[in-house]
Write a structure and sequence with these properties.
Elements lengths: L4 H8 L3 E7 L4 E7 L7 E8 L4 H22 L4 E8 L6 H14 L4 E4 L6 H8 L16 H21 L8 E5 L3 H12 L3 E5 L3 H11 L2 E2 L10 E6 L8 H6 L2 E4 L12 H7 L3 E2 L2 H4 L2 H12 L5 H22 L3 H18 L8
Parallel strand pairs: 3-4, 3-5, 6-7, 6-9, 7-8, 9-10, 10-11
Antiparallel strand pairs: 1-2, 2-4
Helix pairs in contact: 2-13, 3-4, 5-6, 5-11, 5-12, 12-13
Bound molecules: 1,4-dihydronicotinamide adenine dinucleotide (NAI).
């Protein structure tokens, strides 16, 4: 089915979507800029083996919009953007990332790039050869972004437990983590230290065995995570894992994780609520990395992990409180609040400037 790109942009309120192609490196990518009314569009570069161009474009739109929601709720002076790159056999990664760097530089600071799935320090270093508008990798950069994300997700779990039970009481909790990557592993480490019973899945067998042995985790086979009875289901792999079938089986009281867009569709927020499951949206709790990366760029120093945890904890608690008062789902309330802030920013808009 064709994507009517201008209609999709109008529906989501996008400023700009670029299709990027480079014959020499085999680069095929989309760059979405959702909102620059309060400052640059912040967002990572995702490299993934998309099935086709349509899936890549739709992911670009979804992810850049979610970045705007994240920035608005976290109070960051900037909006959302995203690059998605199609990972294909003929791609020359080093040349492709350098090409992206040149294209980002030409945007003059409207878009500021960071890491994402498939793009870590090595890839950002290639981008940095060509542009200033990228989070510097390594010691010159904003520091551990996955730790910042993990801290925000943990703060969300605390807020949700307090909302439901009035206390955290970690030693009697069970948390299921789907995906023990950079963020999932950090969350597991933090929870194990608090005495939580952590059950985890991970697609990469070697990684799973390393983390399992070190933290003494219980392992659940792939695809069976939702069947485990637990306090919190914490999706930290890819998006789209919560849909009609998995939500029917989900045996958790709370969903709070790092994965972007874990709901296959917005209406699944309502389905979770109908099943009595408290859902804290991804863009509320996984903003730690963008807070750190964006504020490093804007202020020249990274925001501390403690500050990030406290800020996200406050926002999450506020959304949960409003949702309870209105008898509405936190997903609906969070989206409405984010959109309200974006509308206000746009009505007060000044054009974004580079640093
Ligand atoms: P990562 O790539 O380091 O980890 C993801 C892990 O999930 C990998 O180890 C992978 O093998 C595993 N995995 C993939 N599919 C799986 C499945 N079906 N079942 C179980 N495991 C599976 O990524 P990272 O950085 O830990 O991010 C996790 C999620 O959080 C991603 O969706 C990412 O977009 C999102 N996120 C990450 C941020 C960050 O600071 N790293 C910031 C905001 C969102």
């Amino acid at each position: 089915m064709a994507v009517h790109i201008l209609d999709a942009m109008a529906r989501g309120g996008f400023e700009e979507v670029l299709a990027l192609y480079d014959e020499r490196s085999g680069l095929r990518a989309f760059l979405g800029i959702h909102d620059t009314s309060a400052g640059p569009a912040f967002g990572g570069i995702r490299r993934f083996a998309y099935r086709d161009e349509r899936s890549a474009l739709l992911d670009c739109l979804r992810l850049s919009l979610a970045m705007s929601h994240k920035c608005a709720l976290a109070g960051i002076a900037g909006g959302g953007g995203k690059i998605v790159m199609m990972d294909r056999g003929d791609l020359d990664p080093a040349q492709a990332y350098r090409h992206l760097g040149r294209r980002i530089e030409r945007l003059g600071g409207r878009y500021y790039a960071g890491p994402d799935v498939g793009s870590g320090d090595r890839e950002l270093a290639w981008v940095q050869e060509e542009t200033r508008h990228v989070a510097p990798p390594g010691a010159d950069g904003p520091g551990d972004l996955a730790a910042a994300t993990g801290a925000g997700v943990f703060a969300g779990m605390r807020a949700a437990l307090r909302q439901l039970d009035g206390e955290e009481d970690w030693p009697r909790r069970t948390v299921v983590i789907q995906g023990l990557g950079r963020v999932g592993e950090r969350i597991a480490r933090c929870l194990v230290a608090l005495g939580v019973h952590v059950v985890a899945s991970e697609r990469d067998g070697e990684r799973l065995e390393r983390v399992r042995a070190e933290l003494d985790l219980e392992v659940v086979p792939l695809g069976e995570e939702v069947d485990v009875s637990c306090d919190v289901f914490c999706p930290c792999a890819m998006g789209g894992t919560l849909h009609d079938l998995t939500i029917q089986r989900l045996a958790a009281r709370i969903v709070c994780g790092a994965a972007n867009n874990p709901l296959a569709h917005r209406r699944h927020g309502e389905l979770l609520r109908a099943r009595g499951i408290l859902y804290l949206p991804d863009f509320v709790v996984n903003a730690g990395a963008v807070i750190r990366g964006a504020e490093f760029h804007l202020n020249g120093s990274p925001t501390s992990i403690e500050t990030i945890e406290a800020r996200i904890g406050d926002v999450a608690a506020g959304i949960l409180r409003m949702a309870a008062e209105e008898d509405a789902s936190p997903a609906v309330v969070a989206l409405r609040e984010a959109e309200r802030r974006i509308r206000r920013r746009r009505s007060e808009a000044r054009p974004a400037r580079s640093r």
